Amino acid sequence: MSDPTPDGTDTAPTAKDDPVVPTAWGVPVVESGGQTVLHPPVDRWLETVKACQDDGFCMAIDLVAVDYSAHPGRTDLPSGIKPERFEVVASLISHASGRRVRLRTQVPEHDPVVPSLFDLFPGTEAMEREAWDLVGVAFDGHPDPTRILLPEDWEGHPLRRDVAMGRIPVQFRDAPAAR
Amino acid sequence: MVRIPGVGDVGDVLSDGLEGLEHNFITSRVEDLVKWSRARSCWPATFGLACCAIEMMATGAAHYDLARYGMEVFRASPRQADLMIVAGRVSQKMAPILRQIYDQMMEPKWVISMGVCASSGGMFNNYAIVQGVDQVVPVDVYAPGCPPGPETLMHAILTLHDSIQSGELTRRRDTNGGGAAIQVEAQPATDQPVELAPR
Amino acid sequence: MADELVDADGGPDSGTGTDLGSAERVRRRDETSAVLRLSEAEAAVLAGGPDDPPAGDASDQRMILNMGPSHPSTHGVLRLLLEMEGETVLRSKPVIGYLHTGMEKTAEDLTYLQGPTNVTRMDYAAPLFSELAFSLAVENLLDLEVPLRATWIRMLMCELNRVSSHLLFQATNGMDLGAVSMMIYGWREREEVLRFFEKVTGLRMNHNYIRPGGVAADLPEGWQADVRRLLDLIPPRLDEYDTLLTGQPIFRERLQGVGVMNPAEALALSATGPILRSTGYAWDLRRDEPYLAYDEVEFDVIVGTHGDAFDRYAIRLNEIRESLRIVEQILDLMPGGDFRAQDKKVTPPPRSRIDESMEALIHHFKIFTEGFHVPEGETYAAVESPRGEVGCYLVSDGGPKPYRMHIRGPSFVNLQTLPHLMEGGLIADGVAVISSVDPIMGEVDR
Q: Could you tell me where the DSSP H helices lie in C202-272?
């Protein structure tokens, strides 16, 4: 059955307002285009990933952070999950069964912290650093929470939607005189 | 006034280089010889950054062969290099290092900006890429392309060689105060894009 | 499938990693870890100024050495902070970001048709794979079926791109180890493949050829003769490389036993591609999660035994042979048909139709100015590039431009293995290790 939200309050109704929500490994699951997507809440992030790892998901393929502030009305979440500004998405793969699973957790804007997966999957070290660097989601328990792609003294998180592209107008020099 | 018989007045050589020699028959021959040899043994410094570096390596390889111009020795140490081919996109993190390598090169030195990313920022007009490497170092020849094929790069190199051999580059730098005399001042960081003069 | 995944001892893999040897080495967090977790600012403080007297006493051999980012052997703009005791590397940290281009941010500003021009410049040695991952992700969201001929053309071009990328590896690997003539030979073969690419796609590199819906243009007349020429030319040259390098004692001494990894560590560090396969673990997306038409061609997955740099060299050399084997089969099996999905909303009409039909003109205009809209959703598509698994995570909000596009670059993840491979080795071996990991910095930094 659907899990209660972390703070126990009513959730915003989503398009798939269904009283019976399928679950897997204890969290709501959605089949999105043939791909299995789990939606654990942030406080169950580590235990869900651990449960998947115990079930044969031996490698963490990818970890991404997304800023949904320019697209608040997304409809692909199961009912019972309240959409937040940030999402952290981890993709796992099981070589023995050939299955992939994707875990999406909602991270609130006022407290953008997610437990780090380093102890379960050391390969997420660089991926979490990139998510912190570009989007600004912090990872609790990460061994080296410093910027990885931008200069260390850079301010801001460029992949957030409220940060501009940073274009400068094209500069045309004086054309050389005709020869 | 230091006068050497035949050559003439050489007092200004220390400050003006070759252009400081009094022009007579013998010194102009010396000048031509020096410019000829500078053009023909122009050693590039390894500054391959991104995709253009692959095409630069292809130009140095057997099919397109930079060795026929005496340029196949890509020197890792900037002290031994004459030419810096900036091959690839220069990110904000890399720009100070680019300047540092350029400063470590000995005069006379030249810069070819290879590819559109080095020349103007290319297709990446965003927060991360310096919009043209001439914001950081003075560029002598721009080679367009994404990436420029080896033939384009060689055309750029030959254009540079012609400019070196005709002395045009040395003359231009004297009038513009360019070359090693360029002073780059650090601008305070702003969060507004710099508005340039309207076209 | 489970019995084909072999661990280093040759036994079956249970999938939980317990039979694969320990991965504890890579989980250490403190000073005993192989990763030097020092920020650049701290390292700069430790290094001091150029005029400061040397710190520590004369017998203290431990120092932090900076290698790169402008360095002849670091494969692009990679900077390594090495903590060394004499010539032995104790801990290290790869510092990246010197080629950060903000491509994921740029992707949010480009339409789906322009997307491949952006992603192709990430892994610039194997650009077609990034284009393929992006196009597959877009086609997933569009639920678009790609015609059979387009699928086979994509497979042909990708396998030839694998050949050219591995030839680049052979060239740079040889040069890094001192076999400078290998550089010339590798590029000589690569030129032949690039000539074919120029004939088909118009460009030698960064082709923007594989687009959502199919490919940009059909194969030109006479392509079979060109491919046949490549198939006749390259294998004898590969045997030349074997003579030059594989049996040669100095080459073997420099690479065997250098940069050793066991399968559990590689899995824990999320390494894919030749690094994972060199440990004896047979995982190749072309065979285990077939995409395009890889289940219809026969090829072997090359696997190493010792997990060292020599295995990685040999794997890549033999993968060239396997790719040419696939290309030969494609020559015979290539079907006819469309090279692009005939969906008017996605595929621009042929130029001649624009003069004839108003509708074609309007579609052309809409597709090239605004772009085609992709339904809301998110997806992940992965392919096996020469460096490992390159994947594209795409989030769409229903508009003509991606909402968030993230490319899982294999080199970015594989670079995490570098400190563990270099631990305890000599600094000269460090160069061999970096070369065997074969990072492409465009894909690391994006």
A: 223-241, 249-255, 263-268
